[in-house]
Amino acid sequence: MLYVDRLTGVKWYVGGMQETGRERTRREEYTEATRQALLAAGQNAFASEGYQAAGIEAISRAARVTRGAFYHHFEDKKALFDAAVVALQIEAAAKIEARAKTQRKVWDRLTEGIEAYLDVCLEPAYARIVIQEAPAVLGNARYREIEEAHPMALLTATLAALKRQGELDFEDIELLSRMVDAMICEMALLLPGAENPKRLRARGQKIIGNLLGTFRTG
């Protein structure tokens, strides 16, 4: 599935290679394949071991490349982690958008998109890398930049569409989007340790639904 990185404008095939708009040379294909192998190995290591424990040497071995090849593509481990977060967020946005588009009405798309967003947040790799570790590793400014360019951008766009159609009465759409996004991420942190995750999720979704319903017109 083709998706556009809203930060850079670069096109990606989710789960695949970067789209350049022209036929790639064999060297370019090999270079991109190496980068993707390192990215996949890095994601696996960060998800299973955590950022601090994951090592460049082990990641390089898992990707079947040399340490020198690693540094050809990434400045350091943090740069690889950053790329892993961006890739996961691009993939998350694509999943959310695909789910939302199954609904015809914009309000139903919002509801379905939030449901899909929460599902993504509960995926083990996404939960550990993006939700738990990214803010500390990348810093809040960079973390928010990536978040706002991908999953939250979809949420903001949907809320803005509802406002334009007169179905949502709230002046600051960006603030509302940030609040809903924060609630979803907080639920993702709470659910793994909950005694009754299903009940907690239902209650959390009700809170989000009630919040948005407060500003729904008609």
UniProtKB/TrEMBL annotation:
Keyword Transcription annotated: yes
A GO MF label: transcription cis-regulatory region binding
Domain named HTH tetR-type: residues: 32-92
InterPro entries tied to this protein: Homeodomain-like_sf, HTH-type_TetR-like_transc_reg, HTH_TetR, Rv0078-like_C
Superkingdom field: Bacteria
A Pfam short name: TetR_N
Keyword presence, Cell membrane: no
DNA-binding region per UniProt: 55-74
Record keywords: DNA-binding, Transcription, Transcription regulation
Full protein name: HTH tetR-type domain-containing protein
